[in-house]
From TrEMBL:
Domain of life: Archaea
Pfam short name (any one): Endo_dU
HAMAP family linked to this entry: UPF0215
Species for this entry: Haloplanus litoreus
Protein name: UPF0215 protein ACFQKE_16280
InterPro entries xref list: Endo_dU (IPR002802)
Gene3D superfamilies tied to this protein: archaeoglobus fulgidus dsm 4304 superfamily (3.30.2170.10)
Family: Belongs to the UPF0215 family.
Length: 194
C-alpha cells in the first residue's frame, strides 16, 4: 500500500447526552491527517449506519480507499450494518475492536427486549465473524466487507505503525472526544470521559 493511500477512520464519544459525537478522520498511510467530518447518532438507537454513511458523503473524498470503524456497536449498542454501509459508500469497510469477547449477543439480551432486541440481533447476526489479527505484537479483532481477510489484515497493519490501534481510529477517537467536550461545555452539560 502506497504511503499516500488514505483511510477514513470513524470513532465516537458520548457522555451525559442522548447523542453520541462521531468523528470521521481521513489519514494517509504516512500518518498525515487529511480531513475531518463530524456527526452524531442516537445513544441506544439504530441510526449509526446512516450517520456513518452521512459522514462519508459529507467528506466527498473519492481518494479515500477504505473505511475503518472502531467496533460495530457505538453509542450503547447502536449496531452498524457493515454490508449496508459497504453498499452505500462503495468501498471496503473494516471494523476493528480491541478486546476478546464472547460477542455482543449476551449483552444485547441483558439490555433490550421485544422488537428492540430482535432488530439488533438481526443486524448483529448478519455481520461477518470477527477474526483475530496480530498487529505489532498486539491482538485486534477484525470484521470486513468488500475485502478478503488477508487484505483486511494488511490494511489494518498498514495504518498501524505502532501499537494496536490504527491511526485513523486513534485520531478520530481523540477528535470525537474533543468535539464532545466542546459541545457539552457550550451546552453547559457536565462531561465525563467515555
Amino acid at each position: 500500500m502506497k504511503s499516500g493511500a488514505r483511510a477514513l477512520g470513524v470513532a465516537e464519544s458520548f457522555s451525559g447526552s442522548d447523542r453520541s459525537v462521531l468523528c470521521g478522520a481521513v489519514l494517509r498511510r504516512d500518518r498525515t491527517a487529511d480531513g475531518f467530518a463530524f456527526g452524531a447518532c442516537t445513544v441506544g438507537g439504530t441510526d449509526a449506519t446512516d450517520a456513518i454513511a452521512d459522514l462519508w458523503t459529507s467528506l466527498d473524498r473519492a481518494d479515500v480507499r477504505v473505511l475503518l470503524l472502531s467496533g460495530i456497536a457505538p453509542a450503547w449498542f447502536n449496531i452498524v450494518d457493515l454490508s449496508s454501509l459497504h453498499e452505500r459508500i462503495d468501498r471496503p469497510v473494516v471494523s476493528v475492536s480491541f478486546e476478546a469477547s464472547p460477542g455482543l449477543e449476551p449483552a444485547l439480551r441483558e439490555q433490550f427486549s421485544g422488537d428492540a432486541l430482535d432488530r439488533r440481533l438481526r443486524t448483529y447476526r448478519a455481520q461477518p465473524a470477527r477474526r483475530r489479527v496480530d498487529v505489532n505484537d498486539e491482538d485486534v479483532f477484525v470484521r470486513s466487507v468488500g475485502v478478503d481477510d488477508v487484505a483486511a489484515a494488511e490494511t489494518v497493519r498498514a495504518f498501524t505503525p505502532e501499537g494496536g490501534r490504527p491511526d485513523p481510529l486513534r485520531v478520530a477517537r481523540l477528535a470525537a472526544r474533543a468535539a464532545r467536550r466542546f459541545v457539552n461545555e457550550d451546552a453547559g452539560l457536565a462531561d465525563e470521559d467515555t
